[in-house]
Amino acid sequence: MGIWRIGVDELAASRFVVSPMAETVAAFLLLSDGPAPPAHRAWRDQHRGAFRRYLDESPSASALVTHMAGVNWLPDYLSGPPHLTDRGVHDGLRRVRETPAEVAIADLGVGHAGPVPAVLTQPDVALRTAELLDWVWTRTVRPDWPRRQRLFEADIVARTARLSSGGWAAALDGLRPGMRWLGDGQLQINTIDNPPRDLGRGELTFVPASARRGWVAWELPHRYSIVYPVAGALIAEDDSSPRALSALLGPVRAGILARLASPASTSQLVAVTGYGLGTVGGHLKVLLDAQLVRRRRSGRSVLYYRTEIAETLLSANGG
User: Fold this and answer.
1) For 265-290, what is the HEC assignment?
2) Final residue of a structural domain among 233, 261, 295
3) Residues 10 and 31 in one domain
4) What is the enclosing helix (H) or strand (E) of 258?
5) Which of 26, 168, 171, 291 could be stapled to 211 by a disulfide with Cβ–Cβ 3.0 to 4.6 Å?
6) Residue 198's domain spans which residues?
7) Whose CA is closest to 249, among 305, 277, 290, 279?
């Protein structure tokens, strides 16, 4: 199995981050190959036609998609870890674009039984890859990025709350298929029979994305990342509340109530809704006073959840 050995100091310094570049790669993979998970199906159906037309007009992009179909290992130059100094997706695209051709071609050959297609062995292969990812970002991810960013931030809040209450085992077990914390500084990243890798003084980041399975990546010698699938319930589009309930409580309070299908903290609700901390806190107090929600402590977090009265109201109004 694949094991990463992580020192105590490096583990303590690791962090969860949001990466528009990782989300762009995840979107590219969803558009390229295989069935989409239910939470992403409507999005992929919306953009699949335009993506196919783009591939018809770009032989190199089409060859890249075909070459990567069904692979278990992404090319390193395409899926590298985010840098903590990144200010947007274009920093990641620049790194792809500046990859030497011989490095990109060698990366494309890893994990494939057959040779790399001739169209992908040209000096401009990294530039063409960056153009493909830029198209995916511009046409399919950027219009929805503010909402996605809030959802990823909410997922990170939930993960860090789990870390504070249950330790690394609770935060990392099941983060992506095949991953679990073994203790003694050992993280199983997958079930592939590879020699253990010592991260040394490496920078480790955990990155949520709209991915089927996620992936691991590194930029040797000191930068590593684990991209994991964001929780399906968080990425779902339907966060609406019934109209009658919105008229009764106000759209913000009704929306908060609708999002409490499972317990959530104030910080999670802030991240998901995009409202300020004071706004969410004020509405939660009103819902508490009206006995529509209750709260309980979980570790260092206070979680809010719906009462039976609230469940009845939502059920009666089709929520």
Assistant:
1) EHHHHHHHHCCCHHHHHHHHHHHHHC
2) 233
3) no
4) helix 251-258
5) 26
6) 2-17+162-233
7) 290
Residue 184, in any domain of the structure? yes
Residue 243 lies in a domain: yes
Q: Global pTM?
A: 0.78
What residue type is assigned to position 159 of the chain?
Answer: R
Residue type, 197: R
Q: What is the DSSP string of 40-74?
A: HHHHHHHHHHHHHHHHHH-HHHHHHHHHHTT-SS-
Number of Cβ atoms within 10 Å of the Cβ of 29: 24
* Pair 15, 206: CB distance under 8 Å: yes
Per-residue pLDDT reduced to its tens digit, 140-196? 999 989 888 878 887 887 787 777 777 888 778 778 888 888 888 888 888 777 788
SS3 276: coil
Determine contact, residues 239/259, Cβ cutoff 8 Å: yes
Write out pLDDT tens, residues 33-51.
Answer: 777 777 788 899 999 999 9
The token pair at 164 is: 């504070």
Check if the beta carbon of residue 14 is closer than 8 Å to that of residue 204.
Answer: yes
Mean pLDDT for back-to-back runs of 10 residues, the chain (319 residues): 83 90 95 80 91 96 87 87 93 97 93 82 96 97 88 80 76 80 86 82 91 89 91 49 80 88 82 83 94 82 86 77
- The answer as to whether 251 is a domain residue is yes
